[in-house]
Specification:
This protein is mostly helical. It has nine helices and no strands. Helix 1 packs across helix 4, helix 3 packs parallel to helix 5 and helix 5 runs antiparallel to helix 8. The longest helix has 29 residues. The model has no long low-confidence stretch (mean pLDDT 84).
């Protein structure tokens, strides 16, 4: 900072987030040989495995939508959620040395991680859709505005989750060992490789409590004109996202000084 130049709080916050984003990118991708290619390889491998399974079974999973596109619409959002959940647990410990700087708080570390994961999620979704289209695997697009709305809500939901797990992971470090065990079952009940329309109706009452299921259903509805998502509920997703974000902010607000002081 040059002498005599005063920065506004907004400029300081912007510079802090930018610096943390660069640090997160180097930490996450710099040590791997595949580097940034892993952004596309992770969801692509999930898609190929699931598509191979259903191809072996000799069935098209959803009428009018190629299996690979159907799987992509579930896998990409779920990976974003999973990464936010798991990385939120360790957000404080992995950045603890930076909290000696007055301008930086645990919230900044969590926000930068969620922003990076969100950018990776959107980038991988768009690029993989383009790659599949190049190979002739396409479906008629539906509703861009719906995608914008649900992804903004999903960002708020994942930020709330990350803030909550940031506090929980710092107070109870052993949670980091159990975090993957919590996320893994959600993979099978969140509609990643099925549609709620294909599930017997007596189970809808249980599955529909899961906001991730509504997010994935609405994502597919926004992406594909032939996907109806008749059991998806946008108001429920909006309510869940706002409640989760408010809860995360309240938990963080009540504990952030302890997060900085704890060793």
């Amino acid at each position: 900072m040059y002498p005599g130049i005063q920065r506004s709080p907004w400029q300081i916050q912007r510079d802090v987030i930018r610096a943390l984003l660069i640090r997160e990118m180097k930490t996450r991708f710099g040590k791997w040989r595949l580097g940034y290619a892993w952004v596309l390889l992770e969801p692509a491998m999930h898609i190929m495995v699931l598509a191979a399974i259903f191809s072996f079974m000799g069935r098209e999973f959803y009428p009018g939508i190629p299996t690979m596109l159907f799987m992509l619409g579930g896998i990409a959002p779920f990976i974003f959620f999973s990464n936010c959940f798991n990385k939120g647990v360790a957000a404080v410990e992995s950045n603890r040395g930076l909290f000696n700087y007055r301008q930086l708080r645990p919230f900044d570390a969590v926000l930068s991680r969620v922003l990076l994961e969100f950018a990776i999620y959107l980038f991988s979704l768009v690029v993989l859709l383009g790659i599949l289209a190049w190979f002739g695997i396409t479906a008629r697009f539906n509703d861009f505005l719906l995608l914008v709305v649900i992804n903004l809500l999903f960002f708020g939901f994942c930020l709330g989750i990350s803030l909550t797990m940031c506090v929980v992971g710092t107070k109870y470090p052993e949670v980091s060992r159990f975090a993957p065990m919590i996320v893994r079952p959600l993979y099978f009940i969140s509609g990643v490789f099925f549609s709620l329309e294909q599930v017997p109706q007596e189970y809808h009452g249980y599955l529909s409590w899961n906001p991730l299921l509504h997010m994935i259903e609405l994502t597919r509805e926004g992406l594909f004109a032939s996907y109806h998502g008749m059991f998806a509920n946008l108001p429920y997703l909006a309510t869940s996202s706002l409640v989760m974000l408010a809860f995360g902010l309240l938990v963080y607000r009540s504990q952030w000084r302890d997060l900085v002081r704890s060793q």
